[in-house]
Write a structure and sequence with these properties.
- The complex is a heterodimer of chains A (326) and B (289).
- Chain A has 326 residues and is mainly α.
- In chain A, 71% of the residues lie in helices and 1% in strands.
- A two-stranded antiparallel ribbon of chain A has the order 1-2.
- The two termini of chain A are 44 Å apart.
- Chain B has a single domain, classed as MetI-like fold (Orthogonal Bundle), CATH 1.10.3720.
- Chain B has ten helices and no strands.
- Chain B is globular and about 65 Å long.
Chain lengths: 326, 289
């Protein structure tokens, strides 16, 4: 190797070199295989959408747009409308967000800004564990633990002690099974999702941002409010919308607590229905093809809504990640 | 940022606000963990007394007869998770490898996004999909349909986790293998994948823990079964579905069994989560942030 050639004179490896260009048979097989698995994901998503819409088609064709606005639900006369379920899904999810989002953000801020180092890991683990508990177990706990407390303590407190019974939102008898119960259990269930995303975005806020605020004489809280949270705003919003997506589609716990009634009532004490819970609750007793198809149509509406909500949420979270990389 | 005049008085007020807000954030942390503690406590109190050997080895008894177990549901859950893993793991790991290695390809960006969207789909929608695809055409419920629904849920979980784990493998390792004359595919399979394996095992465990507790996708696919069945083309029992059925029933004896089943299910999920936690931690060498 006397008189080694200058690097510039070295020929570039040919594109079909067995090790670098992906030209060998093994490489081609490997590449094709992994690409096929990757392509399987969009294909699966499209296939799921196709199957669900196909299952819903008879009902969608029969009722058209009216399916979304009608409150009729009469399997005997073959009349179906999803308005009460859409109402119930939106109200229970939004209410759950109102309950969970501030709390989740608080946890995330505590974990990223105030928490002593030794506590951070175990505490995050505990909060994340909330996400690991199966929905049906939440439902079981809700039925036998949460409902009695709501019925005997929380609902009388809201209605009588706070005098809210005069408003239409907290009126009527307190059975327990209600929109409120569904919202509370949903809030507990989506909290870990919102807090996990928020925590990650908050931790990704550059140190310089914090140091600058502190150097200006800000207190810790002022630093968080003026320098940290605004910086992470988009990502936190993404986390909240992600939580919304979870709440909209949550099935078992809601089915076990919401009371399952096809009625739109402004009172949070009244039972309701959601798109997911009507499918879970009525599928087994669906008497005719059209009834089944109407339930599937509820699923199709849910699918479209969650596709849009998740798309927006992911896009928000991503745009933050991209900004931070740039 | 707003500019504030600093007088000693307002400084005191600002410090007080700081203190109050710190307290509130701490309170939020306590409130958030409270449901978990209440739930686990209640579960232990109600369920622990009903768990004995019979719970794991006996079949459910009809209403009115006390005792009995959930052997069929436990085996059913294992079978369903097995089918789901057979679908979700190869596809997820393959797709994850692709995403990590072709990071900047346009296809990768699209797949990554759609995989996250798939992950956010409600589990009951997966049930509808599997019902229309596998149950309706043959006219009866089956373990296979349930497994497919769960497998579809597992794919995005495994994909994104595999990608993340493969990305943590240092480039130098890959380059060293290539420099030794390894073809790309062998580099990927025997060097990169092997290095990332503990992380991928963790991810697989987390995914299993998550789908093992799912009920909604099984309602009209696996359907549940009161009898012993391990046939893939027949309805099959599962722990989460059994909990749902028993919880809705008016019988105290069945409620008791539902609590016991919930405790077993949670125990399973927690054990898997803890093992997964341990695997990642020992790999990254201690508690990191």
């Amino acid at each position: 190797m006397a008189g080694a050639p200058a690097p510039a004179e070295q020929p570039a490896p040919p594109d079909d070199s067995p090790t670098l260009g992906g030209g060998s048979v093994g490489d081609r097989v490997y590449r094709t295989l992994t690409t096929a698995f990757a392509v399987a994901i969009p294909v699966l998503l499209a296939f799921i959408t196709f199957e669900v819409v196909a299952a819903a088609w008879p009902a969608l064709r029969r009722f058209g747009f009216g399916f979304l606005t009608s409150s009729a639900w009469d399997p005997q006369r073959e009349l179906f409308g999803a308005a009460p379920m859409i109402y119930g899904t939106v109200v229970s999810s939004v209410l759950a967000l109102i309950l969970a989002a501030p709390l989740a953000l608080g946890v995330a801020i505590f974990l990223s800004e105030f928490c002593p180092r030794w506590l951070r890991q175990p505490l995050s683990f505990l909060v994340d564990l909330l996400a690991a508990i199966p929905s049906v177990v939440y439902g079981l706990w809700g039925m036998f633990f949460l409902l009695p407390i709501l019925r005997e303590k929380v609902m009388p407190f809201l209605a009588t002690t706070l005098g809210l019974a005069r408003t239409p939102f907290f009126s009527g008898p307190a059975y327990g099974n209600s929109m409120l119960a569904a919202a509370v259990i949903l809030a507990i269930m989506i909290l870990p999702y919102i807090s996990a995303v928020s925590r990650e975005v908050l931790m990704a806020v550059p140190r310089s941002q914090r140091e600058a605020a502190l150097a200006m004489g800000a207190t810790r809280w002022e630093m968080i409010r003026d320098a940290v949270v605004p910086y992470a705003r988009t990502g936190i919003l993404g986390g909240v919308i992600l939580g919304l997506g979870r709440a909209l589609g949550e099935t078992m716990a809601v089915t076990m607590l919401i009371g399952n009634r096809h009625e739109i009532s402004p009172s949070l004490f009244a039972p309701g229905y959601t798109l997911a819970s009507v499918i879970a609750n009525e599928f087994a007793e669906a008497t005719n093809e059209l009834h089944t198809s109407a339930l599937m149509a509820c699923g199709a509406v849910l699918l479209v809504v969650t596709l849009v909500v998740n798309g927006i949420a992911r896009w928000l979270v991503w745009s933050v990640a991209r900004e931070q990389k740039a | 940022m707003t500019v504030r005049a600093v007088s000693p008085r307002s400084l005191r007020r600002r410090r007080a606000l700081n203190l109050v807000m710190s307290g509130l954030m701490g309170l939020a942390a306590v409130l958030a963990t409270l449901p978990l503690i209440l739930l686990l406590g209640h579960l232990l109190r109600e369920g622990a007394s009903s768990i004995d050997l019979a719970f794991f080895t006996r079949m459910p008894k009809p209403v009115g007869e006390s005792g009995g177990g959930m052997a069929n549901a436990i085996v059913g859950t294992l079978i369903l998770v097995g089918i789901a893993g057979a679908i979700g793991l190869p596809v997820g790991i393959g797709a994850g490898l692709y995403l990590a290695e072709q990071r900047r390809a346009r296809l990768a960006t699209g797949v990554r996004f759609l995989s996250d969207v798939l992950n956010g789909l409600p589990s009951i929608v997966m049930g509808i999909f599997a019902w229309h695809f596998l149950v309706r055409p043959v006219g009866h419920f089956s373990a296979l349909a349930g497994g497919v629904a769960l497998g579809a849920m597992m794919i995005p979980l495994v994909t994104r986790a595999t990608e993340e784990m493969v990305l943590t493998v240092p480039t130098s390792l890959r380059e060293a293998a290539l420099a030794l004359g390894y073809p790309r595919w062998r580099t990927s399979v025997s060097i990169v994948l092997r290095t990332a394996l503990p992380g991928i095992v963790t991810a697989a465990l987390v995914a299993v823990a998550r789908i093992a507790g799912e009920t909604a996708p099984l309602l009209f696919t696996a359907f549940g079964n009161h009898y012993w069945s391990v046939a893939l083309d027949q309805p099959i029992a599962s722990l989460p579905h059994q909990i749902y059925t028993y919880a809705k029933s008016p019988y105290d004896d069945w409620h008791r069994l539902a609590w016991a089943a919930a405790l077993v299910l949670i125990g399973l999920v927690l054990a898997i989560s803890l093992v997964a936690r341990f695997v990642t931690r020992s790999r990254h060498g201690g508690v990191g942030d």
